[in-house]
Amino acid sequence: MFKVFYCVLARDITLAMRRRTDVLTTLFFFIIVVSLFPLGVGSEREQLRMLGPGVVWVAALLASMLALERLFAADYEDGTLEQLLLTGQPLAVLVLAKVVAHWLLTGLPLVLIAPLVAMQYHLSANAVWVMMAALAIGTPVLSLIGAIGAALTLGLRGGGILLSLLILPLYVPVLVYGAGAVAVSAIDIADTEPYLYLLSAFLLGASLLAPLAAAAALRISLE
Amino acid sequence: MMTTNWFKFASPAAFYPIAGRLIPWFGRIAAALVLIGLFWGFFLTANQLGGSNPQKEYYRIIFVHVPSAWMSMWLYLVLAGWSAIGLVFNTRLSFMMAKAAAPTGALFTFLALWTGALWGRPSWGTYWDWDPRLTSELLLFFLYIGYMALHSAIDDTRRADRAAALLAIVGLVMVPVIFLSINCPDPNQCAALHQRSDPGSIHLSILIPMLTMTFGLWAYSFAAVFARLRTIILTRESDSAWVRDVIAKEATV
């Protein structure tokens, strides 16, 4: 089972590395969205410091959602997905491998670029660490929940917009506690712990249930 | 022990006439209960907020607001429940029931938000605030919209039914969040405008009309959902002989 997991993971990452622009597009989308806000709302330091956590999280949400469309689409078009369904391996494990690959390619870069983005918003060093931790725990949850939506909207016309309609309401708890952790760190760094614990709980719950739901959704879509 | 074959009514052909006979009854019950509840709440219940200040009469919105908020959550449970039954037993009627319940649920969610805004303006000085419960009710509205959007985006009925059903079950995680969002986890983070309450602490002259309204809206939901269900049945089963008989019969009346 681990072998299957590793195989799918390695395959997806190799494929993505052959076409790096896809990965970079998501990253630059994130940077551009974050950079647009100061131009729109004005660049006073205090205001930016207050807006920063929320803006970064919303941008991360949108970036991860845009990338989701591609999670199953290419495999669906060339028939690989059907073959994966026929392998007799547990589909949830295959889905989990694909989600992990997806996160490594789109979520992890966002975590790593966070300090740079935080500088644009004059966040303190503590807030940067908290933001990185929160993003590191929170973005996998986004990928996991998003996989369900991506599987449900597979091959539909207007799938992208539909996907956002289905998935964004479910992202809200992650957004609230992710941005909350960073905002609270400005008051007292010790107060961030419950937020991070709660995000971790979301991650555990999502990694247990979301692959199963996404696998069921894939079966429905490919029936 | 007598065994009842519950699946007998799971056939659209068997349920169609039953639903037709039940609709007028539920309609009458709904009209009666809503009239009683509103009359009681608007005219018989004493003014609870303002004392002699007639401006506080706006609190009577509660007789529409709370029942519709309850129904919005309840109908989502109904929707998800029928979806789950449909996925497990593979019964066509369950999916139709779920699909028929969605617009009524969305309607009540909208009504709860709308009456909430009308209540908020005089009492809090704003139509909208990011109170946890308001926000989560808005999310519920998005869930209903998402369910209907996904269903209508898929042309193949079977796939649409099953995909939307799965979405409804996934969205179920939000219902306890909405229900419990009154207990704000951190008072510094969210200024909760709704206060914690339990039915025992509500004055009976408010509680009884509120419950009457709730049952009235519940009966209305039955009538509306059954009416919608009948058209869905006719549309989907339009190839079958019994539907042609029904249509032929209704055309002659």
* Main sheet record of chain A: none
Query: Separation of termini of chain B?
Result: 43 Å
Provide the gyration radius of chain A in Å.
18 Å
**Protein chain pair with the most extensive contact, residues per chain:** A-B, 22 and 24 residues
Helix and strand string of chain B, N-terminal first? HHHHHHHH
The main sheet of chain B comes to:
none
How would you name the oligomeric state of the polypeptide chains in this document?
Answer: heterodimer
Distance between the termini of chain A: 24 Å
Number of helices of chain A: 8
Mean pLDDT of chain B: 80
Classification by helices and strands of chain A: mainly alpha
Q: Please compute the radius of gyration of chain B using only Cα atoms.
A: 21 Å
Order of helices and strands of chain A: HHHHHHHH
Which class best fits the helix and strand makeup of chain B?
mainly alpha
Kindly summarize this structure in a few lines:
The complex is a heterodimer of chains A (about 220) and B (about 250). Chain A is mainly α and about 220 residues long. Chain A contains 8 helices and no strands.
What would you say this structure looks like, in words?
The complex is a heterodimer of chains A (223) and B (253). Chain A is mainly alpha-helical and 223 residues long. Chain A is built from 8 helices and no strands. Chain A has one domain (2-222). Chain A has helices at 2-18, 20-41, 45-77, 80-86, 91-120, 125-152, 159-185, 192-222. Chain A starts with a helix and ends with a helix. Chain B is built from 8 helices and no strands. Chain B has helices spanning 12-44, 62-89, 92-124, 132-153, 157-171, 174-180, 204-236, 241-252. In chain B, helix 2 packs parallel to helix 7 (204-236). The termini of chain B are far apart. The model of chain B is unreliable at 185-191 (pLDDT under 50). The A-B interface holds A 148, 152-153, 156-158, 162, 165-166, 168-170, 172-173, 180, 184, 213, 216-217, 220-221, 223 and B 135, 139, 142-143, 145-146, 149-150, 153-154, 158-159, 162-163, 166-167, 169-171, 173-174, 177, 186, 189.
